[in-house]
Amino acid sequence: MLTPKQLNLYKFIKKYKHDHEVMPTFDDMKSFMNVKSKSVVFHMLGYLEWKGYIKREPAMWRGITITKELT
Length: 71
Hints:
This protein is mainly α and about 70 residues long. Strands 1-2 form a two-stranded antiparallel sheet. Strand 1 and strand 2 form a beta hairpin. The longest helix is centred in the N-terminal third of the chain and has 17 residues. It is globular and about 30 Å long.
């Protein structure tokens, strides 16, 4: 189960991918979440990955893959 903030970020990632055909950058996600630090985004992505909703590719620009769909 995702928290409201995690769900919001997950939905943003999916919509951004659909609209732009690439995954969002940390700055895109930071602006969307209205936070000042990229570390907040980093931790949120870590939880999404730990819960199995995304997969991150290390050292890859925009390296996020959606691995689980919400029902």
